[in-house]
Amino acid sequence: MIKQSFFAAALFTGLIAGAQKMADPSAFAKGITPEVLKKHLSVIASAAMEGRNTPSPGLERAADYITAQFKGQGLTAGNQGSYRQTYQLTKDSLAKLELKIGDNSFNADEVAPLFTNGESVHLKFDNYAFTGYGIVDKGRDDYAGIDVKGKLVVVFAGAPKGFTPSQEGRMASTALMVKIGNALKKGAAAVLVAVDAIPPRFKSKVSYRPSWVKKSATAQPPVFFIGKNVVEKTSGYSFEDVTAALDNGQAPPEVKNAVMTLDYEVQKNVATASNVLGVIEGTDKKNEYLFITAHYDHLGKDAAGNIFYGADDDGSGTVSVLTMAEAFARAKKAGKGPRRTLVFMTVSGEEKGLWGSEYYSENPIYPLDKTTADLNIDMIGRVDTERKSADTLNYIYVIGHDKLSTDLPVINEAMNNKYTKLTLDYKFDDPADPERIYYRSDHFNFARKGVPILFFYDGMLKADYHKITDTVDKINFPLMAKRAQMIFYTAWEMANRDDMLKRDLKLPETAR
């Protein structure tokens, strides 16, 4: 659904009139070109960056490149003389992983942790609850007739052939995290998720997590993947035969007797990662701030050494930040600098759980109550393969427009209508959005602190999303440049208007 909001004529006219009194930003926006964006992205999403995993040498090389660009553009260091805001991670190195089921023993090639709360695990059970696909939905409950409280629960990933969940996306009853959540709600002491092949990124012998996250007093029970070999050795049937039986209703949920032990031990150390900040100081309102953000990390490499280049996700946002910073720097040199201080921040750890932006929001360098807004860019270089509209090559998804501040859509729509005339699509701003996009990028850590946000996004959830094929050659640079120019114009107005954005809307309960 495309929804375009048009506000009262007087308010709209007043905004444009105010913008006209300022310097014309179009001369500076012209520097945001497909050629400049491609030049930067060809570095950020190159093989030399090795997928920019958090943490990794490739991520550090990307941070060095971003820092060099900020310096070269004349931006000042954003953190008390440093361009970096460094944060610590806990590094967990696998020391032991063994699962025993009866007489069969399995190691780290066949078992992998999905969630352990960062702690070692030592468990023993005399039985386990087999729950099939573990689906709980309208008219279906794979836990019916069995009590799993205090037990080890075994659940298969996926869904039976022909089954249609009542919801879509991440809230679907067939989604892995929903299944795990249902098992835990029903009292599972631990969960084993059976899969045909364990996802490569979970088979790493080293994992990281934020060091500042406190351990919960009621820690979540551990969750592990088990591969097809575990299923076949313990059941005596092929993995395909077991799933076929599940599909045909011939493998009902039940509690089975078997001695099972699970031993998982980690050695702990410390690692670091960083956010990169460059600043253009404002003039008469320099103690108020506008953030323009993107995450520069991605997924690194898989076990076979294949690189996840992350050209769109989020190389496109990262280089848009760099190019907008250069445009604003040129304006400042021309005596047309912003009234408010602009903070250009590229964050790390987004792909792991919004780590960098969470750290910043809990340890802000600039007062959050003086931060007028955050404009976050996460994937603006592609065309949504699921989008069938006639305006496929002239759109951008905008998230956050109707939350926290009524000024957000007024400013964004006015500047877009005046300069770029993109279709602003609000589909993902729907509270019922099954993909829960509002929660899935770094703007959320500003929003939860009350800072108005707009999030700009191309909607690419299919095709090359989180695949090694997200490469520079797939980017639509003319469309990306137009989108980045629109964000630049929006930032220009926010940085130069008389007042900070109002904070006159509450964040919906569902978005807290």
TrEMBL record:
One Gene Ontology term of the biological-process aspect is:
proteolysis
Pfam families, per the entry: Peptidase_M28
Taxonomically, the superkingdom here is Bacteria
InterPro entries given in the database record: M28_fam, PA_dom_sf, Peptidase_M28
What start and end residues bound the annotated signal peptide? 1-19
Where the record annotates domain Peptidase M28, the positions are 275-489
Under the GO molecular function aspect, what terms does this record hold? metalloexopeptidase activity
Keyword annotations of the record: Signal
Instruction: Quote the protein name from its UniProt record.
Output: Peptidase M28
Organism of derivation = Niabella soli DSM 19437
